[in-house]
Amino acid sequence: xxxxxxxxxxVVADEQLPNLELILEEMEDDLEEIKVALQTLLLKHDDxxxxxxxxxxxxxxxxxxKSSFIKLPDVSLPEFHGVIxxxxxxKRQFDSLIxxxxxxxxxxxxFYLRSALKGEARTIETSEDTFESLMTD
Length: 137
What we know:
This protein is mainly α. 57% of the residues lie in helices and 12% in strands. The chain has helices at 2-11, 17-51, 87-99, 106-116, 121-124, 131-135; strands at residues 54-61, 64-71.
């Protein structure tokens, strides 16, 4: 992106530079959002393949070791619909699947949290909220 900016500066008239700066900043912001969205999709794809756990069971048969594979079902995210009595169950499940996942950053965790909020629970969130502010008891 930086190389493209330098090349573009060489062909643009000086009076267009202030407007160009704003456009390029917006492009960089958009690029960052796209990057996060793509990383989130890739992680979601990786999570799907990781969530299909394969359990190995060693079976001995005349000193030969054989393995059997068991495919476990995918685990879906819990949903929170705004009923306060269900918050602690939702939070416990969400924490074990997302909050405590060290592979995910806070932006990705916020994305998963937003997708888990349904109905009335979605109206509580504001654009200033962070993952931390929404998950604090």
